[in-house]
TrEMBL record:
GO molecular function: transferase activity, transferring alkyl or aryl (other than methyl) groups
Subcellular location: Membrane
Origin species: Hymenobacter actinosclerus
Full protein name: 4-hydroxybenzoate polyprenyltransferase
Taxonomic superkingdom: Bacteria
Keyword match Transmembrane helix: yes
Membrane topology: Multi-pass membrane protein
Length: 311
């Protein structure tokens, strides 16, 4: 699961053999898997809804889809894709144990080409950010460096890697606000929710990936504290998130009278969070934690779509 140091002779051979496969019909699928295309699409949707629903709810689409936003979107997706690539670059040995069917780097894509793609995409993302504003450029630069550090080291350390990814997810939600400076408070609530849910999911994934992590001297939370204590930690952050969502439901239904938003949050975010907490308490097998990880992604998508209720 963690991003790992480069592989050596065996990787060079595998990479050379896999490089040619990009010319085959499966090359596009390999590339889409490498950059996690579905995740990038969700990132794009999140940025669009933050801008359209939270920050510019009454603006015409011509203003929402301004060229500056297009550059912001492209820069964020470049940083995200680069992060996924460097993740796989460092994680080949562990993924060979935890997710052997999903290996791309070293099998379908040459490792040198993967590193080159990472550097080009990171540079493009930072450059586009600088073109928009020094602040956005620095945020993108910090994100790229944090992703590299996470891949090479932080992911090995209990909670540090989890908090790093959660922080990057929250920063993604805040990017449109950092560009527009509207001062709207709702975006900060969504950023906090994204931070907490991502933190829960990353901890759950650590439990799911214990076998490969243990064989490569990682010090993730379940390996340091054990699974029972790790479940309590995840449960604490899950409870914080549930309280945050419950407050949003209360505000939507009883204070601001946004009934569609309140019912959406209640039925598709809060209720699943409570069910997730119950399932987390019972989980004791790898497949259980894999299911919980997928569950977290579904809740996150429901949370993103809830922004439509603010228009």
């Amino acid at each position: 699961m963690p991003f790992r140091p480069p592989l050596f002779a065996a990787d060079a051979t595998a990479g050379a053999a896999g490089a040619g496969s990009l010319g085959s019909g499966s090359g596009g699928r390999q590339l889409a898997r490498l950059v996690r295309l579905p995740n990038l699409l969700i990132m794009a949707l999140c940025l669009l809804l933050v801008r359209a629903c939270l920050l510019l709810p009454e603006a015409p689409w011509r203003q929402v889809l301004a060229p500056g936003f297009g550059l912001l979107l492209l820069s964020a997706l470049c940083i995200g894709a680069a992060g996924y690539i460097i993740n796989d670059y460092y994680d080949v040995k562990i993924d060979a144990i935890n997710r052997p069917g999903r290996l791309v780097v070293g099998r379908g894509i040459n490792r040198r080409h993967a590193m080159l793609a990472h550097l080009v995409l990171s540079g493009l993302g930072v450059g586009l950010g600088m073109l928009l504003s020094p602040l956005l450029g620095l945020v993108n630069l910090g994100s790229a460096l944090l992703l590299w550090g996470y891949s090479a080291r932080f992911k090995r350390v209990a909670l540090v890697g989890n908090v790093s990814i959660a922080t990057l997810t929250a920063a993604l939600v805040l990017l449109p606000e950092l560009q527009l400076h509207t001062g709207r408070s709702a975006v900060w609530g969504y950023a906090l929710a994204a931070f907490l849910l991502t933190l829960v999911r990353e901890i759950v994934k650590d439990v799911e990936d214990m076998r490969g992590d243990a064989q490569h001297e990682c010090r993730t939370l379940p390996l340091v504290w054990g699974v029972p204590r790790t479940k309590w930690v995840a449960g604490f952050f899950l409870a914080c998130l549930a309280l945050l969502v419950a407050g949003a439901v209360f505000n939507a239904l009883l204070m601001s009278h946004r009934y569609a938003l309140g019912l959406w949050l209640l039925a598709l975010v809060l209720a699943p969070l409570l069910a997730l907490a119950a399932a987390l308490r019972r989980a004791d097998q790898r497949r259980h934690f894999a299911r919980l990880s997928t569950w977290c992604k579904a809740i996150m998508l429901a949370g993103v779509l809830s922004m439509l209720g603010l228009v």
